[in-house]
Fold:
Amino acid sequence: MRTMEAAPDPRLPRYEQIREHLRQRIFAGEWEPGSALPAETELAKQYEVALGTMRKAIELMAEDGLIERLHGKGTFVRGELQQASMFRFFRFRRDADDAAPVVPRTVIHELRETTLDNRVAERLALGRARRGIFILRWRELPDGPGLLERIWLPYQPFRELLKLRRDEVPDLLYPFYRSRCGVVIARASETIRFATLRREEAALMGLSRGAPVAVIERTAFSLTGEPVEFRITQGDAEHFHYNVEIK
Amino acid sequence: MRTMEAAPDPRLPRYEQIREHLRQRIFAGEWEPGSALPAETELAKQYEVALGTMRKAIELMAEDGLIERLHGKGTFVRGELQQASMFRFFRFRRDADDAAPVVPRTVIHELRETTLDNRVAERLALGRARRGIFILRWRELPDGPGLLERIWLPYQPFRELLKLRRDEVPDLLYPFYRSRCGVVIARASETIRFATLRREEAALMGLSRGAPVAVIERTAFSLTGEPVEFRITQGDAEHFHYNVEIK
DNA sequence: CAGTGGTCTAGACCACTCC
DNA sequence: GAGTGGTCTAGACCACTGC
Structure:
C-alpha cells in the first residue's frame, strides 16, 4: 500500500509543516509505538527552527493524541487507543474506584470469512475488495450487563485472525491487531442510538424479543487514518448511561 | 453573593496564576460578555510578564471557551454557551446543511414556584434554600421529533421568570437568564440514559405508555462555576442519535 | 494607516527522571 | 550529573481588521 506523502503547504506556519512531516515519519514507522522521539532540541536542529517553534509542533501532535510527553523522560509515540472499552457506556453495581482494569469474559459465537455488504464496505472505504472477516461475540463483566458485539474487518491485513480457533481469540483485539496484523488503532468514531431486539439477538443476549437496547456503532481508524474496523455493539438499554461535558 | 477570591498558588507557573486572576476579573464583571479584553501587549504590561507568557495564559482561557480570539480584532469575552440545543441529540428528516439556526416551537405547560426536592437541590448545590421554580414545556421543530422538558431553577436569581405569562416565556432561556437574571451559562454537564414513558408523560408527548425514550439530564453552570439550572429532557428513542470521537 | 493577534527567534534557567 | 521536557524572557516581524 503506497502512502501519499502530501508535500506540506509552504504557506502554512512552519510548525504546521513540521507537524505534518513528523506525522508522516511516524506513520512510515520511523519510530515504533511506545518508543521515544528524539529530544526537542535535537528535532529543532533537524528542522532548523528555534526550540519554541519545535515545541509548538510537538504540542499540537500531543493534543491530537498521537504522541505523549513525559516531563524528564521524553516524547513517546502513542500505542493503542486508550479507554476504548464499550463498557464505559454501561452502568455497574460495583462502579466505584475499582481502578483495576477488569478484562471482560468473552465468548466467540462466530469467526469466519465473509463477503462484506454495502453498508460495511462503505464504512471501511473499500472499493471492490469485498472479502472480509466477521466476528460475533458476547462479552460480560462480573456483576455487569453483557454486550453483544458484531465486528467486520477487511480480509487484509486481518486474515491472521482466521487461523485461530474460536477459543484462541484474545479478549482484547486491538493489541492483537498491532502485534499480529501490523495495525495500530489510533482513533475511533462512535454513534449511539437506541433500538429494540430482534428475536435472534434476544436469544443470544438472554433478553426478551423487543427489549430496548443501546446500540453503539464504531468505526476504528489506524494510525494512517484509514478506517479498518467496523463494529456494532449492543447492550441492555436499562444499564446504559453516558456523560457529555459541553462548553 | 460574595465570591471567593482564592489567591492563586504561587508555586504554579506564572501563566496559570494569570489565567486564574483573569478568570476572576471576568467573573467579577470587569468586562461584559461580548466585549474586548485589553490587547495582549497591554495585559503583559499589567502583569509584568513577557508577551509569550501572557499569550500562554490567554491561550488556555480560549481553550476553556471562556474567551475568543479574533485575529486582527481582539480578544473577546464569550457570551452564551454555544451548541447547547437538546436537538443536537435527535435526528431529523431534513438534517442536511441547514445551517440556518432554527428555533423550535415551544409550548409552556407549567411555570410556577415550587419546593425543590432532594435530588434537584443536591444538583443545584443548595442548602436549606429549597424555594425554586419549575417549568414544564414541550418543544418541537418542523419535521422533527418533539421533546418534553422539565426545568428546575433556584428562586434567586430567577424569580423574574415568575412575572411572565406562560405565552411570554421566550423559546431560548439562556439569553433571558443573562439579560434579565444576570446569569451567564458557561458550561453544562449532560448524562444520557434510556427509559420508558409513564402514563402522564406519554399523554403529553403523544406517544404510548411504555414507549422508549432517550433521557438527557443537564446541569448547567454559570460563569462563576455554580450549578444554576437542572433540566431533564426526553424524546422518542427512535430518533435519538449521538456521535462521539475518541482518541 | 494604527492596532490587533499570530509566528518565530535565541537564548536562560527550572523541574523532573534515571543512572 | 546528564538528559529530558517545562517555564520565561525580550525582542522582531508577519497577517489580519478597521478606519
